[in-house]
Amino acid sequence: MFYIVGTAFLIGVSVYITTTFFVDKKSFYDRRLKNIELFKEEEENLKSIKNLSNESLTLLIREREQNLLQDVPREKELATSMYRNPLILPILLALCSCLVIFAIYFQPISLGSLNDLRTHDIIYGFIQGDEKERNKKRNALILELEDLVDSKISTASELYYLSTKFREIDEYLFSSLLLAELINAYKKEIPAYVYSEYAQTIFFKEGKIFSAAVNKALDVALAKSPTNSIALTLKGINQFEAGDLSLAKISWEEAIKYSNNETEKRSIQTAIDSIKSIKNQ
Asked: What is the C-alpha to C-alpha distance for residues 197 and 203, in angstroms, rounded to an integer?
């Protein structure tokens, strides 16, 4: 927002300076043309006087030429003689330029820019608020996100970014809602790891229980990306809770192999070590 205000201000200043210079130049040019026309009229009038001698006529014409066709000074008072206030036009053009920029940035009201702005305020007000404020705004946010999803106007990057912001504050319900829409609307465009992130988000939303929804999402994630470390980690957890420690260890070792996150690798290794401790008991 600060960027667009600064840009609009700079463009407005540029338009003001340019138009002010133009008014000065134009006034000088127009005054010169008027003087030429006036000289021609004076010359014709002088020539129409029959009782003037040639010497007097020549002298008077030269006098008019010197008075009317000499260089016109380029001071601002020339513009003042043509316009009551030479600043009005540049200022109006500068203001119009700023308004056009803001209109393009925020889009016309008829296209729903006010609704978009309200949705933005609700979403980011929730994300930036503390837990008490979130609890107050939770119901309103659910309605806004449902409207946002139903409107089909959000891009894939916007949906993914918002889902990430909600995961950062452990709001997995909202994150899973956005990821579900992302997968549904852009299934042919999104990378395979999004399916694993969706399965993980559903897992946390369900309270770390392998419900039917979690198992379904995990199966899809493994089918889309069988070497994804997140999907393999979830697979190992599921196997561990089912009592199949050997398969859990294999899944976690595969997860470490394909993970690029050192913190994630250490966490998975801790889980593998716990299996060794259980077997040694």
From this structure: 10
Please tell me the least confidently modeled range out of 31-35, 112-116, 162-166.
112-116
- Alpha helices of the chain — where are they, by DSSP H? 2-47, 54-69, 77-82, 88-106, 113-128, 131-151, 156-168, 172-185, 193-205, 212-224, 229-241, 245-258, 262-280
What number of other Cβ atoms are within 10 A of residue 169's Cβ? 15
What is the spatial distance between Cα 119 and Cα 141, in angstroms, rounded to a whole number? 9
User: Which domains are assigned to the chain?
Assistant: 2-106 (no CATH), 111-280 (1.25.40.10)
| pLDDT above 70: percentage of residues in the chain | 64
Higher-confidence residue of 49 and 152: namely: 49
Please say whether the dihedral angle defined by the alpha carbons of residues 159, 179, 167 and 229, taken in this order, is positive or negative: negative
Rounded Cα–Cα distance for residues 277 and 247 (Å): 16
| Contact of 268 with 275, CB cutoff 8 Å | no
> Which residue type sits at 101?
I
Q: What is the pLDDT of residues 29-79, one digit of tens each?
A: 556 667 677 767 777 776 777 776 777 767 777 777 666 666 545 444 444
